[in-house]
Every structure is written in structure tokens, then in C-alpha cells.
Amino acid sequence: MISFTVYILDEIGGTLLFLQKILSTIFVKRLKTHEIFVQIWKVSTESFPTTAMAGFFVGAIMAVQFAMPIREFGALGFLGGLATSATFREVGPMLIAFMLSGKVGAFTSAELGTMRVTEQIDAVRCLGADPMQEIIVPRFIGIVISSFFLLAAGLMMSVFGGMALSQAFAGVTPEEYARHIPTIVHPLSILSGMIKSLVFAVVLATICTYKGYTTTGGAKGVGRAVVATAVTTMICIVVMDWFTSFLGDVILQMIRGYRS
Fold first, then answer.
1. How far apart are CA 38 and CA 138, in angstroms?
2. Rounded distance, CA 166 to CA 180, Å?
3. CA 234 to chain centroid
4. Do 208 and 108 touch, CB atoms closer than 8 A?
5. How far apart are CA 172 and CA 50, in angstroms?
6. What is the residue-wise DSSP string for the chain?
7. What is the pLDDT of residues 15-74, one digit of tens each?
8. What are phi and psi for residue 25, nearest 5 degrees?
9. How far is the C-alpha of 215 from the C-alpha of 114, rounded, in Å?
10. 63 and which of 13, 83, 151, 176 could share a cystine (Cβ 3.0–4.6 Å)?
11. How many of the other CB atoms lie within 10 Å of CB of 111?
12. Distance CA 124, CA 120 (A)
């Protein structure tokens, strides 16, 4: 138990120090803008179909689940607002981030891990270049930016998924579904979803680059890094979802107390 605790603390410390190195490189050294745009384009084009599909079915699932209880109260007109609010605030960002962790995180970890075990990263350093500046930072920024917009696009797709399934299973037309979305989905709900999407994107980019950069042990090590990336990312996303929800509720209570 003690050794496991030490391992967890060592991983947390190593990840935070790695993030510190990335941020210091971003603010101190010149960024490779062309490589950043290449990474944004690659991640976005390869992951958009998966994210759009995930967002569509997340919205559909939430609409179906909410339709069952509110049908008994004759409040199906509020289905769109309730399902969309819950999707934006809690369920949508987390489930879509899970999909991205398996798609983007695993690929990036495997790519960097292969570069590490084949000594390509060491070769970059031997040539007098900084691997953090040349390899890690463009991927980190590219993953954060593209993942944030992919998560936002997935949340938008969840609205269409809710519309489609609510009409098929509950008989709620798209116009009726969308009628109460502006009244129930407050700007704070949208802001909460966007903040969570940004936090999850940073978590995903940090973990996958760190696990890939620190890979050891040849081909088996690359496989272990990919598995560790997927597991660690999902755990951290759940933890950060709780933390951001808790922090958001505290800030909301402070705002309400200030207004009253």
C-alpha cells in the first residue's frame, strides 16, 4: 500500500513538473506555429467523426432518460431544456472527453513513446534543438485547442441527437424540443460546459504527452504507456469533473449571496 501511494505521488509530481516545463517553454521560447497548425488540423480531422457521433448519442441518451419520468407529469415540453442543461453541465463534456482520450490520447502517447524508444527524441537533442520546443509543445497546444473545439462541437451535436430521439420515442417535435432550451439552459450552464471542456483538454494533452515522453522499455513500454495514458486520463477526467462542479457550485453560491 505504501509503495502504491509513493508511485501515485511520484506520477502526480512528475506530471505537474512536466506541465511546468511545457508552460515555461511556451512563454519563454519561440513557438513553432506551423507545426501547431499541423497538429490542430490532424487531430481535428481525425477525431471529429468520433466526437460528433459521441455527442449525438450522448444527447439522445439524455433525452430518452429524461422523457421517461417527465412524461408522467405531462411536462414533455420541457424535455429539450432539461436534457440539454444536464448534457452541457455534467454528462456531455465528460463522456466526450472519454472518447477523445481513447482516440487522441492513445495515439499521441504511442507516437511519442515510439520516438522515445527509437531514440528520435535523443537525436533531436544531440542536434542542439530542444525536444520540448520542437516536439512536445506543438502537440500539447494542438491537442488543447483542437480538443476544446471538438468538445464544444460534440456538445452542439448532442442537441441534434436529443431532438432526433425525442421525436422518435416521445413524439416531441424539434420546435417543441428547442422551445424551452433558452429558458432552462442559462449562460452559466454553457460557461460551465466550456470551462470543463477546456480543463479536460489540458488534462488530456498533459497526460498523453507526459506518458509518451517518459516511455521506457522498447515496444512493450510503448504498449504500457498507451494503456497507462487511457486509464490515467479517464481517472483524472472524473476527478476534475467533480472538482470543477464543486468549484462552480461554490462560485455560484457566492454570486447569489452577493446579489441578495
1. 9
2. 14
3. 10
4. yes
5. 27
6. -HHHHHHHHHHHHHHHHHHHHHHHHHHHSPP-HHHHHHHHHHHHHHHHHHHHHHHHHHHHHHHHHHHHHHHTTT-GGGHHHHHHHHIIIIIHHHHHHHHHIIIIIHHHHHHHHHHHHTTHHHHHHHTT--HIIIIIHHHHHHHHHHHHHHHHHHHHHHHHHHHHHHHHHH---HHHHHHTHHHHS-HHHHHHHHHHHHHHHHHHHHHHHHHHHT--SHHHHHHHHHHHHHHHHHHHHHHHHHHHHHHHHHHHHHHHHHH-
7. 999 999 999 988 888 888 888 899 899 888 888 888 888 888 888 888 888 887 887 777
8. -65, -40
9. 8
10. 83
11. 17
12. 6
* 200, three cell numbers: 479536460
Q: Which three cell numbers stand for residue 22?
A: 511545457
- All cell numbers assigned to 42: 490532424
